[in-house]
Design brief:
Layout: H1 10-30, H2 33-53, H3 65-70
Helix pairs in contact: 1-2
Length: 71
């Protein structure tokens, strides 16, 4: 179901991820079990493809444990 993440352009991949993140809570709270399972698997597919394309990500130091302590 859905386009193979490897076939998505970079813009399409990011758009799909944003859409999934926007609908996650609604699916968790009100979706049937099969919808939640599909949402989870699709999110995993798209995130895996993003990580495959971007194995070295730009990490925000504030998101690290030490950065959080400094806040």
């Amino acid at each position: 179901m859905g386009i193979d993440p490897r076939d998505l352009t970079e813009d399409d991949l990011l758009r799909e991820l944003r859409q999934l993140y926007q609908t996650r809570l609604e699916t968790l709270l009100h979706g049937p079990d099969d919808a939640l399972a599909r949402h989870t698997s699709r999110t995993n597919e798209l995130e895996s493809e993003y990580l495959r394309r971007h194995p070295v990500r730009d990490i925000d130091p504030g998101r690290l444990r030490e950065g959080a302590r400094q806040r």
